[in-house]
């Protein structure tokens, strides 16, 4: 490309070879009095433009950012089980300087955690009186995070910790991975479902699933929002009743750890610690599909060259 303007300058400086030779200028006096045409310069410009487009085409331009091919997972599969019972609406946390519910803080922390675990398959289970699979373990973290942002407290009573843990373990049981992890977050006690949390922990241990449990909520009483008869938002103080003993037993039986999150910073620190503990060094191969853009450059170049040829042989035909 840098050579093209140099060649154009040299061509203009040296001039073109004479088409006709005359012994005397008087023989062509009538021709020399004609006005100079710019047609030749225009046609030459078209030729240089076509050449420039062909050079760009030879460089093989490509459009990146196409769909990525399936990438090699790190060997760590994670399922996060989040309590969405009514008590998770308690606003005993702060987020960006404002009062926030436990659900909102859990979503914010989980979003950061997922973005740090680029090569891990991560799934999502939510629970209240029952347990539901919000997302199977996947490397499509954009899909996962869209589901995370849609989370809200469920309109059903009870907290089925045992059912939630069983559902999370079942999403991992058939996966062939070096490490299987469940992160279970709750702010209450198991008072729903048909499966005992410790029975679910035994199943997790048998399947080689490590469970990290997180108790969410301040100690003592927490402000719970409600709307009064006049449509005004009010708060009432409710007891924070987390079954820490059971959560500790679950983590101890499976080789994990129990954490207590009583602030947004603490919850972030907990996820940061889990992120550091669960690492697996592997070579991850990534392949991306690229769209070839050569045709979009060469085609206009051919069109410009064709136009230059047509004009040179018709409207601006020259002799010889």
The average pLDDT score comes to 84
Main β sheet profile: 6 strands, mixed
Looking across the biggest beta sheet, what order are the strands in? Answer: 6-5-2-7-8-11
Helix content: 25-40%
Task: Give the helices and strands as they follow along the chain.
Answer: HHHEEEEHEEHHEHEEEHEHEH
Radius of gyration: 36 Å
Indicate the overall shape: elongated
Distinct helical segment count: 10
Kindly estimate the percentage of residues that lie in beta strands according to DSSP.
15-25%
Question: Which regions are unreliable across 5 or more consecutive residues at pLDDT < 50?
Answer: none
- Number of β-strand runs: 12
What is the structural class? Answer: alpha/beta
Distance from first to last alpha carbon: 31 Å
Task: Considering the chains and any ligands shown, give keywords for the structure.
single chain; 21% strand; alpha/beta; six-stranded mixed beta sheet; 320 residues
Could you give a short description of this structure?
The protein is α/β, with parallel strands linked by helices. It contains ten helices and twelve strands.
3D architecture notes:
- Strand 7, helix 7 and strand 8 form a beta-alpha-beta unit.
- The strands form four sheets. This protein has a six-stranded mixed beta sheet, sandwiched between helices. It has a two-stranded antiparallel ribbon with strand order 1-12.
- The longest helix is centred in the N-terminal third of the chain and has 20 residues.
- The model has no long low-confidence stretch (mean pLDDT 84).
- It is an alpha/beta fold and 320 residues long.
- It is built from ten helices and twelve strands.
């Amino acid at each position: 490309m840098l050579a093209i303007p140099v060649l154009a300058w040299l061509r203009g400086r040296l001039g073109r070879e004479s088409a006709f030779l005359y012994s005397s200028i008087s023989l062509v006096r009538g021709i020399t009095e004609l006005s100079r045409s710019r047609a030749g310069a225009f046609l030459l410009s078209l030729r240089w433009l076509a050449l420039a487009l062909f050079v760009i085409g030879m460089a093989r331009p490509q459009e990146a950012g196409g769909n990525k091919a399936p990438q090699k997972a790190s060997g760590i599969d994670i399922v996060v089980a989040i309590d969405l019972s009514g008590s998770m609406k308690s606003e005993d946390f702060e987020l960006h300087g404002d009062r926030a519910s436990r659900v909102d803080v859990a979503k914010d922390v989980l979003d950061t955690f997922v973005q740090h675990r680029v090569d891990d398959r991560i799934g999502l289970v939510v629970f209240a009186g029952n347990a539901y699979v919000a997302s199977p373990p996947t490397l499509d973290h954009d899909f996962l995070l869209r589901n995370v942002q849609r989370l809200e407290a469920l309109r059903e009573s009870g907290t089925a910790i045992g059912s939630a843990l069983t559902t999370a373990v079942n999403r991992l049981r058939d996966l062939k991975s070096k490490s299987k992890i469940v992160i279970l977050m709750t702010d209450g006690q198991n008072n729903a479902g048909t499966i005992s949390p410790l029975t679910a922990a035994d199943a997790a241990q048998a399947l080689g699933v490590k469970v990290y449990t997180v108790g969410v909520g301040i100690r003592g009483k927490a402000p719970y929002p409600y709307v009064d008869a006049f449509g005004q938002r009010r708060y009432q103080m409710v007891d924070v009743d987390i079954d820490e003993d059971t959560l500790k037993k679950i983590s101890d039986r499976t080789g994990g750890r129990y954490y207590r999150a009583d602030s947004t910073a603490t919850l972030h620190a907990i996820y940061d610690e889990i992120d550091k503990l669960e690492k697996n060094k592997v070579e991850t191969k990534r392949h991306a599909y690229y769209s070839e853009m050569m045709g979009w450059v060469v085609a206009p170049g051919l069109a410009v060259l064709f136009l230059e040829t047509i004009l040179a042989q018709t409207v601006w035909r020259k002799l010889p």
